[in-house]
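User: Here's a chain of 95 residues. Predict its fold as tokens.
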Amino acid sequence: MVEQGDIIKIENISQKALVVSKDPYNESGHVIVCPIVSGSPETAFSFPISEEARVLCDNPRQLDLTARGYTVLNRLSLANLIQVIDRLQSLLDYY
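Assistant: Prediction complete.
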């Protein structure tokens, strides 16, 4: 099972992804991820995780990992995960 904050590589998808959904949800085999891209310009809803890679917080996706192969590559630090989820949450806040 993947955990919130894991950076994963999904079979047949060229981009890496960051798992942003909470662990109890991830236990279902479904996850919510944000893509990690390189070479993308900085935006208000992206977050740099290295000099060449950014998490696109405004592009979340739900994936069924029971239907796809995946590999856990790394883990994002808690401080950076908080920054990513704050950006994602700001898209869903109400007035």
